[in-house]
Amino acid sequence: MVALQEVLNIDKLENDFDSFKNKRFKIEVPALHIERQVELTNFDKLRKDIFELSKQFPHRRVALTYKTNGEMILLEIHPVTGAA
Amino acid sequence: MINKPAIIGCGTVGAALSFKLAESKTVSDLKIYDFDCVSEFSNKPSYPFLAEESGIHKIEIVKFNCRFINPSIRILTYREKVTKPIESQSFVIDCRDCKSSNINSNIRISLDGHMLYIDSMSYEKSEFDYHRYISPRNPQYIERATNIIMNYLLDDIYMKKDFRFYDLRSDEFHILKQEDFYGGTARSVKHR
After folding, report:
1. Contacts with B131 from chain A: Cβ below 8 Å
2. Contact (Cβ atoms closer than 8 angstroms) between residue B46 and residue B11
3. Is the CB of B188 less than 8 angstroms away from the CB of A9?
């Protein structure tokens, strides 16, 4: 088993975080069919949720993608398979 | 476009990309490396191999099909497990499942379900990584991934030295890491 060591592009998410205020937030892990609504209070809480969900993968790294439809932020977590 | 490609690993991505390169007639020479045979213990071997091909070395099947698609292409096959750099004349495309050992590849490609990763950054020594695929193989995603990789090569996108994620469910790709002029890593960017 390989322990999670890196959440790729979490720095970009942190930079964009301020613009997400007052928006609903949903985290999805498509590969595991997980969906979770999260409360957007502060970035540390969000980071903790992301790491918690990412630990369900045996992978060393995961990648984040996110998009907004105006009111909702959809953040997805993807495992990085095979040390690409 | 790349010159003299060498594909390391003839699993789903390596084999499908070899066929596409042969079909495109953009290269006259292609080197392929793999040590493995098509599984004899599965009724349905991984795409693009067939159950009738079980027990045959993958490179022989890939060579045969490439020559069938494009009789003028010159295919050189190497039945070996590559764990160290090969000679440097070729543009090396690492399609191995496990890429922990450095083979000085120009790009590294991984496909897992809808997730396609292409890394053209300078190799950084990493620890052993998890390399079992967790999402089922989907022929549509494989076809889409192969087209993306071909465009990536034709447009010389590997020169941008980045690590990108293509979400095959949509037309989006995301740059996860990017090498700056001095070889360090920089920002991540989303594109459509």
Report:
1. 81-83
2. yes
3. yes
